[in-house]
Amino acid sequence: METPDSTSVTSSHAAYDIERIRADFPILARLVHGVPLVYLDNAASSQKPYSVIQAVDAYYREIHANVHRGAHELSIRATEAYEGARDVVADHMGAASSSEIIFVRGTTEAINLVASTWGAAHVGSGDEILLTKMEHHSNLVPWQILAERVGATVRYVDVATDGSLVMEDYDRLLTSRTRLVGVTHVSNTLGVVNPVAEIATKAHDVGAVCLVDGAQATPHMQIDVGTLGCDFYAFSGHKMLAPTGIGALWGRRELLDSMPPWQGGGEMISEVRLDGFTAAPLPHKFEAGTPHVAGAIGLAEAIRYLRRIGLDAIHAWESALTTYAMERLGEIDRLEIYGPKQNRVGVISFCYADIHAHDLATILDQKGVAIRAGHHCNQPLMEHLGVDATARASIYLYNTHSEIDVLVEALGLAAHLFGVT
Ligand code: 7TS
């Protein structure tokens, strides 16, 4: 008789019906250059299931109107759907209330919002902003702009050779001058999962706030902002099955309340006079103009889809696939993988002999294999790694072991063409 543990492991894999999941994504059935698409560029953007495409389609066919404005049926229905989407996001993130969820274009806009409003109000001359060397440009440049404007200094926590953050360096750089710690939950180049709960606790010990860039985490893991203990959490919908142009910023209510508005315009005001205005209450204070209603509806449906499959089941599938990919790629001579073996997601960056990453990506594309090549908006990290670019294969819930085999075969072709021995 099987033990309860092995039974539960067996049943969770058995329950993961990969063929059914793949059938939910129409684009996966298409050919590229006459061969089946092998989509391994998920860290850049994920593909979309029918249910998300249909939710957006149904919105435009049946209830589209501007939100929060009209007394007519369509506007009321569109508003309900938009605010209902906010409730889904809030529930999914473990937010204390839906008013802590600000809809934005994505992670980039979320971080710019915090840097421009919270940053302008709380960071001044001589203050420090503490980031890490593995941040995406989206979590570097907004802080550099702020620092330049107010005379603050940006410092960076080092990255160890195994791709993890050097926590002793964090402890050393974190001081009473630090106003904000900004860290990515998961690196988009190294795949490493950072200890954000510990980072947030330590930030609070010196009176700093902690912003987490969740762009590469939300697609793969269940997030609970309460457990993480951070103050801001930013993410993009398009990397987690939702449309482009929609994402969210979660912030602690008392911080969001204390922040000045960002963009001015309709929706974000309670009253406008010729001598000034009164800002609307949260969350609308930060949502000037007509929002991306269809995007929000698509994001809510993407979250429902991920939850129907279960983030634990997705995690188990992706972990097995990542281990397999790391093993197969690890067998290739002169192929170097960046990032840790454990404590990672399936974002796998590598360099292969002397073949430039862009050449690799072009050859792989001929075999239908979509990967990313370049600096991945991680130029300081590339400099730290001593390379100007890497090739990057990134896995999601619909990828399979046989697709990893196709990747490895295509790398064999590249080796042949470039005379790698
Ligand atoms: N932060 C991280 C960690 C990211 O990986 C990305 C996008 C962003 C922020 C910005 O997200 P956006 O939706 O606002 O653009 N990363 C990538 C990538 O790795 N390849 O293409 C986009």
Write the layout of secondary structure elements.
Elements: H1 4-15, H2 18-23, E1 31-32, E2 35-36, E3 38-39, H3 50-63, H4 73-93, E4 101-104, H5 107-122, E5 128-132, H6 141-150, E6 153-157, H7 167-173, E7 178-184, H8 196-205, E8 209-213, H9 225-228, E9 232-236, E10 247-251, H10 253-258, E11 269-273, E12 276-279, H11 293-309, H12 311-330, E13 335-338, E14 347-352, H13 357-366, E15 369-370, E16 372-374, H14 379-385, E17 390-394, H15 401-417
Parallel strand pairs: 3-15, 5-6, 5-7, 7-8, 8-9
Antiparallel strand pairs: 1-2, 4-10, 9-10, 11-12, 13-14, 14-17, 16-17
Kindly describe this structure.
- The chain is α/β, with parallel strands linked by helices and 421 residues long.
- The termini are far apart.
- The protein has two domains: 11-48 and 310-418, Aspartate Aminotransferase, domain 1, CATH 3.90.1150.10; 53-307, Type I PLP-dependent aspartate aminotransferase-like (Major domain) (Aspartate Aminotransferase, domain 2, 3-Layer(aba) Sandwich), CATH 3.40.640.10.
- 46% of the residues are buried.
- Residues 1-13 have low confidence and may be disordered.
- It has 15 helices and 17 strands.
- A seven-stranded mixed β-sheet has the order 4-10-9-8-7-5-6, with helices on both faces. The protein has a four-stranded antiparallel β-sheet with strand order 13-14-17-16, with helices on one face.
- The chain is globular, with a radius of gyration of 22 Å.
- Bound molecules: ligand 7TS.
